[in-house]
Amino acid sequence: MSSLTLKGPYWVTARQHRRALVLAGAAVALSLVTMAWLRYWDSRTVGFDEDHGRWLMRGAMDLAATGFPFVPLLVAAFVAGPLLARELESGTYKLALTQSVTPSRWLASKLLIAGAVTLAGTLLLVGTFRIGWGNVTGTYRFQWYDQGVFESSGPVLVAYGLLAVAVGAVLGQLIRRTVVAMAAAGFVTGLVLLALNGLRWEWLPARTATAPFAPGGPVVAPVPEDARLADSGLLTPTGERLDGWYCAEPFDPAAMCRNDVHVTAHFSDYYPASYYWPLQLIETGLVLVLAALALFAAFRILRTRHG
Length: 307
Known about the structure:
Number of domains: 2
Shape: elongated
Helix content: 55-70%
Low-confidence stretches: 250-255
Number of helices: 10
Strand content: 5-15%
Distance between the termini: 31 Å
Radius of gyration: 25 Å
Largest sheet: 4 strands, antiparallel
């Protein structure tokens, strides 16, 4: 976004933070170009080079799956610290308020710039991840449900980025100390991400597969290859669920199970791959609601302190 096309406080915000904006844009562009090139190279290599190309592709995807979920933490830290707390701490924001700019417009200009850059940047990062994911999807650590992959491959990452802007706006005003505000905003954003990550598999019911319990049969009930296995065990005639360790693997039918336990079937609870988009949309919607609440709180704090 060029500061030359902006006016008033928007131009001032873009001008003040042009180095950070240019650096962020360059990092996103470099990631996109690098991933596209690695995918092209991986698709064209043969023989020994094929293994080398796949190794580089997987390495780049490992870095992306690990690093992309941390982008919202960086956004929150930047908004809370350099964008807001530094001006509040030094008092330079008062200059803007003397230029016929209301406090609400001052804050809105900063958050709109940050939000627009975050929206564009995270969308491009999701596109970057999906370019590389096409060559490794379904392999070890790159299943749709794996941590890092789920967050980086869909609109959830965009929603967390916008939440980070709102969280930074709240904590930057409350703390008003640059370094402390940066740390607090990153911590709170990461805490929300971890909490929702833990709740993710509670939003839709798991499906259950069963298989007869018999000598030579499966150790667990089979599930689709691309499904996330949530739980497995044994079933009694009454439907009671038992852990798998109640019975040994069926190598010896004579010692297959404890004498005081009657088992009729194996069960497996799983989440099918068709849950990917519903889970993405549910989590995205929830995060956007939290972002809207945080944004409302940010402007309430502003009105309380500055009228």
